[in-house]
Amino acid sequence: MTNNAEDEAAALQLQDLLMGTENVEDFLGQLAEFSAAMLSAAAGAEIECGVTLQRRKKTMTVAGSSPQAVILDRIEQAIGDGPCIEALRTKSVVLLADVDTDPRWPAYQQQLAAQGVRSTLGVPLEIGPDAAAALNFFGSDTGLFTPELIAKAAGFADLAGRSLRLAVRIGTAQSRADDLKAAMEHRTSIDLACGVVMAQNRCTQEEAMGILTQVSSNRNQKLRDVAADVLRNLTGGEVHTHFDV
What we know:
The protein is an alpha+beta fold. It has helices spanning about 5-20, 25-45, 65-80, 85-90, 105-115, 145-200, 205-220, 225-235, and strands at about 45-55, 60-65, 95, 120-125, 130-140.
């Protein structure tokens, strides 16, 4: 199979993964498994893969092709430095060819050796200015990550980055839609409660809102929760608003 045919097949598989997952976290897990299988086949040896995603104002999200891959990526995050973090920072491929002879990350390399990992490869994914991601490949022997395999991993990362970029955008759009729906529901509850207070106290909307705000302040309770209490007391149950978004 030619490189172009391999790239096309990989792109189609990544597209299928994206369409078959419900959120970014699920896609990361599928991406890690697919990446590990792809590089293992090319190397003729078992290679595990971890995926690290960092979105603005959010903590790191880590997934892996195995529990061990997740553990190793989380250890690296806890230590604060290592091949994957270096790849994220420099936007370049980072090779740790031998955990026994490389002097750069002794604390992390000790953890790698304890897990039977002898070499790693950090490969950044290009997903835009608001997020950063990298694939972290783990090998059980030295010499696995040849120049040819590194080039293959870098080429695959370009395809994977496009799919992950789309997954992040879809996830962000869904999160914004959920936030908007919640805001609309809260606003409706507050408006309904304001109407109840207006009817009970024969006052204006401004005065009713002032009463609700004062209760919120006195109770140290959010205005939406005060509104929910007013409606609950009136109806004897929960009041739900419904929106199609």
